[in-house]
Amino acid sequence: MSTTARFEGTHTAIVTPFKDDAARTIDWEAYERIVAAQLAGGVEGIVPCGTTGESPALDHEEQLALVERTVKLAGGKAVVTAGTGSNSTRAAIALSQAAERAGADAVMVVVPYYNKPTQDGLYEHFVAVAASVKCPVVVYNVPGRTGIDLAAATLARIAEAAPNVVATKEATGNVLRCQEIARTLGDRMLILSGDDGLTLPMVAVGARGVISVTSNVYPAEVTRATRLALEGKYAEARRAHFALLPVHEVMFVEANPGPAKAALARKKMCTDVVRGPLSRPTEVTHAKVGAALETYESRR
To answer: Helices marked H in 75-142 — which ranges?
Structure first.
C-alpha cells in the first residue's frame, strides 16, 4: 500500500472526554470506550489532539499521553495521525517530534493561527516542520478558525520542497478549492474533506476521504458512506450522505466539539464536559442533537 493510500477513507477527529470535576481531567476509561467503538466501526484512522479533541485546551503532556494511548489502543488496526500544530514553528516541531517518538503514523499540522503569516511564512513553517520528522505530514487548512487561508499555490510549493507532506485536510467549505488542488497536484497530494457535509461532492472532484466529526457518533455509518463514494457507487452514496446530512449539520449548531459530546453523552460514551473557554452544550443544543439522532436512527 502506498503512503498516500493509507490516508484514504474515514479518519475520526476524535474527542477528548473529560471528567465532571473541577480540573476537567481526561477520562481515560471513556476514551478507551470511544476508541474501541471507532475500531469496531471500521474507520481507517483516528486523529487525536485535533480541533475536535480540544487541542488548544490541552497541555503538551496531555497531548503526548493521548497520542501514546491512541497508538496502543489502535494496535495497528487504524492509522493514528496526531494533531501537532501550533502558531509557533518551534512548538509545532517539538510536538511533531514527540508524537513521532510516541509511535504516531503521521502528524497533522494546522495552519498557524492568530499570527497571520504571509504565504511565504506559511511555506517556511510547513517545510520546517516536515523536515523535523520522518513520518508523513498532513496539512490542515481551516481558515474559519485560523484567520489565514493556505493558498493552493503555496501548498504546491510545500509539496515540492517537502516530500513527506502527503495529504491535506481541506476545511475551507469550498469544493472549488478541492478541485483546484486536485487539478494542480494530481496524485501527489491526497485530499481529505474537513467538512462532513462536503465529503461526497469533494470525493466527486478528487478527494479521497474525510477527517470526520460525525464519525465520533456514527463510525460505521460514516465509513460506509465514504467507501460508497470512493467506490463510485454514487446512487447509494447519495442516499447514505443525505441521510447523515442532518447529523452533520447539528454537529455545528454551537462550537465543536460541544454537539459531538452531547451526542456521545446521549449514547453513554462520555460526559458532555468541555474545557474553558468553551462551555457545556446548552439544553437547546442537547434537544437539537437528540432530535437529529432520533430522526436518523428511525430511518436507517
So the answer is: 89-101, 119-131
